[in-house]
Design goal:
about 240 residues, alpha/beta, Rossmann fold, 6-stranded parallel sheet, two-stranded parallel sheet, 8 strands, NAD(P)-binding protein, oxidoreductase
Length: about 240
């Protein structure tokens, strides 16, 4: 695979992935398109793929990670909630749709392409104070090859989280909202973004990549806990 396109590359995990791609250069992905892109604007998505076609002629890998966070119990502004869904759900869906079209109609016949869709551990298990964010990540499993579902990683993007004002009724330190506020105020997240994206980079070279790829200890623990609970309920009432 020679040509790649990454969304959300200005910060966070995909910034780390982009740096790795540039450093490795001559291995799995040797050319990468970098363009200013707001995935909530469909026209810019189409233009970005058109620019990649003009520059490279084909795209082999699309890593789709542009995202937005807005957390809070119940006081999230409508505009913030819409921004989360426009970016995380519709933005992801529109990039994926254009990527599939590109793979089918622009790339040479038989070449196809590979999609790496960044989901979230919050898309594996809904979490308190993250309702809209979790919903946006649950719903982006659309016609992709690998759904990447990271846990908490220590990236600059954490500081860009939009928070709704704390509701007095939920101001108890044991409740999810206060726990999350405390965690993100002084982040002590387990994941090293550089190490994590080294693994994601390798996914692009696998002949048979997984459909789901939860990574980070907390994401793996979410999968295990949800699976155990789901099986317990199923077996109890089957």
């Amino acid at each position: 695979m020679e040509n790649g396109q990454v969304t959300g590359a200005s910060t966070g995990l995909d910034r780390a992935l982009t740096e790795i791609i540039f450093e490795k250069g001559d291995t799995a992905v040797s050319r990468l398109s970098t363009l200013k892109l707001d995935v909530s604007k469909p026209r810019e998505i189409i233009d970005a793929f058109a620019a990649a076609k003009e520059k490279f002629g084909r795209i082999d890998v699309v890593a789709n990670n542009a995202g937005r966070r807005s957390f809070g119990e119940e006081a999230i502004e409508d505009a913030d909630a819409h921004d989360v869904m426009e970016t995380n759900f519709w933005g992801a869906a529109n990039v994926l749709r254009e990527a599939v079209r590109f793979f089918c109609e622009v790339n040479p016949m038989g070449v196809g392409g590979r999609l790496l869709q960044m989901g979230s551990g919050a898309g594996l298990q809904g979490l308190g104070a993250m309702a809209y964010y979790s919903a946006s990540k649950f719903d982006n499993k659309i016609s992709v090859i690998t759904i990447i579902e990271p846990g908490g990683f220590d990236t600059p993007g954490i500081g860009k989280t939009a928070w709704a004002p704390a509701h007095p009724a939920y101001s108890m330190e044991e409740l999810p909202g206060d726990v999350l506020r405390s965690l993100l105020k002084e982040p002590r997240l387990q994941g090293d973004p550089r190490k994590g994206m080294e693994v994601v980079y390798k996914l692009a070279t696998l002949e048979k990549p997984p459909l789901h790829f939860p990574f980070g200890k907390d994401a793996v623990n979410l999968v295990r806990a949800k699976t155990v609970a789901l099986l317990a309920d199923t077996e109890k009432y089957e």
